Amino acid sequence: DAGITQSPRHKVTETGTPVTLRCHQTENHRYMYWYRQDPGHGLRLIHYSYGVKDTDKGEVSDGYSVSRSKTEDFLLTLESATSSQTSVYFCAISDLYNEQFFGPGTRLTVL
Amino acid sequence: GNSVTQMEGPVTLSEEAFLTINCTYTATGYPSLFWYVQYPGEGLQLLLKATKADDKGSNKGFEATYRKETTSFHLEKGSVQVSDSAVYFCALSGGGLTGGGNKLTFGTGTQLKVEL
Fold first, then answer.
1. CB B43 to CB A94 under 8 A?
2. Is residue A41 classed as helix, strand or coil in its secondary structure?
3. What are the pLDDT digits (tens) for B31-54?
4. Least packed by Cβ within 10 Å: which of A66, A78, A101, B39?
5. Which residues of chain B does A98 touch, with a Cβ-Cβ cutoff of 8 Å?
């Protein structure tokens, strides 16, 4: 299995609070991605990174920001959590043109 | 833009039955196609892939053939087991991201339940 961990695995928070999710890899892959999974939508790309300090938006980036200060870590921040951001969040990694490997996910509930 | 359509679930089968999960796609260019599987409480795992037309991907008894003429990548297995119960996602890669990343577009997933 690819070495990808996500923390926390579960989180419950209140509307309006900031939340940071962490993705950590031990594979030294260049590309890292954040997705959210919602019923009826499959997985949708939030943000991705193509190198240290190089990030860009995906299709559902509003309300989210990311940072990557080291190859192995990719942080996703919800600046002010809303109930619509209740979801399961997955991190993925890849090398150029190769398949993506996914982490175990973080279940976030915003009350 | 790119899109993936897969059959609605849940699909419920008896053990040893034949499985087909339909997947069709819309894409520009020549995408690679994937099937991912998600077991309860886990992340997605790559099940199989095909990178060009007429390629057949296979793994663990599952197969899918990249059909460009019908824009399809249907997943099949000849004899399912209870342990195959999971959610299956069809996906395609294409439309390169800034910096060369590999953008995946997913279908909505099909839940498979296999009963004894």
1. no
2. coil
3. 899 999 999 888 999 999 999 999
4. B39
5. 102
